[in-house]
Amino acid sequence: QVQLVESGGGLGQPGGSLRLSCAASGSSFVRMGWFRQYPGKQRELVATIANDGLTNYADSVKGRFTIATNNPRNTVYLQMNLLKSEDTAIYYCWGWDAKTNHWGQGTQVTVSS
Questions:
Q1: SS3 of residue 86 by DSSP
Q2: pLDDT at 74
Q3: From its phi and psi, is residue 74 left (phi > 0), alpha (psi between -120 and 50) or beta?
């Protein structure tokens, strides 16, 4: 059974930092990443990382967020720096195993002073 379990969300201050983690099990993922969703909006890409280490970021987070995986690629991280109020959303871990998209349950990130 494939599982993606997020942790590390919560309250962050504007200009501060938070780090999200996602523990993956049950499959080998070709690509992993993070998406976020605002109330009443569709889920949107934040960052992805492929098996070869190639990364992709939304323009809104470039230079502030960094995605990384451990070795043996069963955990994906999202380091979020220089937080802004517009980063407030539910963040979802995502993994693609070359056949199916898999999602975590989501973790709330709130940026507020």
A1: helix
A2: 87
A3: alpha
- Cα–Cα distance between 15 and 81 in angstroms, integer? 7
Instruction: Compute mean pLDDT per 10 residues along the chain, 113 residues long, and list them.
Output: 94 98 93 96 97 96 96 89 98 95 97 95
Nearest to 65 by CA among 47, 50, 51: 47
For 12-49, the three-class secondary structure string (H helix, E strand, C coil) is ECCCCCEEEEEEEECCCCCEEEEEEECCCCCCEEEEEE
Classify the phi-psi angles of 106: left when phi > 0, otherwise alpha if psi is within -120 to 50, otherwise beta.
Answer: left
Give the per-residue pLDDT at 25: 92
